[in-house]
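Lab notebook, page 48
Experiment: co-folding of the full assembly
Goal: obtain a model of how the components sit together before planning crosslinking
Operator: M.T.
Materials (sequences as entered):
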Amino acid sequence: MKPSATHPGRLERLYALALSLYPERFRVAHAAAMRQTFRDALRDNTLSRRTLIPLVLRDLVTSLAKEHFAMLYETFARPALIYNALVLTGLSTGLALALYAIPQQVLRQGANDPQIALATDLVAVLERGGLVEALQQGALPAVTGGSGGVDIARSLSPFAIVFDDEGRVLASQAQLDGKAPVPPAGIFNYVRQHGEDRFSWQPVLSRERGVRIAAVMQRVNGAHPGFVLAGRNMREVEAREEQVRQMAGLTWVGMLGVILVGTAVFGWYTRPKAA
Amino acid sequence: MATGTAPATPLTPAVFAILLSLAEGEKHGYLIMKDARAPHGGGIQMGPGTLYGSLERMMRDGLVEESGFSDDERRRYYRLTNLGHSVLAGELARLDAAITSARSLGLLPQGGRT
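Observation: model returned without errors.
Model output:
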């Protein structure tokens, strides 16, 4: 029996099966017409099977890929969907930055607390007793409770250094490679004008070792003015900051994943449907 | 729904072949495929998937439309719209200018086909 619309041949049945691989909307719109076109091609005596079958196979591969890509584009490249995803991405990025920046600032500012107390107490004693005299009477160990010789590269204890008005070291609990570290001249100038500075400091001697100090410097007023620097190695604080950074980063990646999946699911369920 | 936005030129070989085929009048899918395969239709080997994918996009762009005529409930006929005619004319003019230029450069023989 000759193949017809009501009695399709084997090739046409196979082709009809292949048509089910097209995206739903395209299939609903064109599958019947495509099947008819294929049937017309089978009936065309001027077109051999040897030409038709490779042609149709190539066409299936390329047009399936093209129509699925077009379907994905129509589904997910809708401006409203992209706009929503971008807004959510922006919000999640802002939230992740806040999740990092707020605890980081709290940790960093909190790292100054012991030094502020130490510097304030020591300045009060030095101003009351006179800079040189009070130091001679042991004001530094008395206030700080330490005996000196804090290796700032290793120790996490707060330390204090007293400078004269020219920025020369008068007394120091801190040592780095056997010397008392001295901050840059700009810090002295700033404190001379403003009374106090709080800063993160990487002493020149320790650059290659990455020693960073949470430092507070205050001005000592009186007949012999000078400066008190209180500091503490930031190693532990920075380790906690790194943990916060990693948690914020993971949270950000997780939020982006949720947005991606949510956008894909929402896009799929609101995709343009077949007429 | 047709948007009526003319596609950028040059047209793809499939779109050009379909426009050229339908310039003769309304035709169904297999006739368009057959015309496209012929040397005078562009010699484009186009299967049903490419044909109907192209026709769908061309209908969306307002270049072709279904005529409504059918000799079989599965066989659909298509025809050019006014925009389709003008896009085809523009593409032919572009190709004509390119052929003229090729002739003047000696890349093609003068006076048409040999």
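Interpretation: The CA atoms of residues 63 and 83 of chain B lie 5 Å apart.
Next step: discuss with group before ordering constructs.
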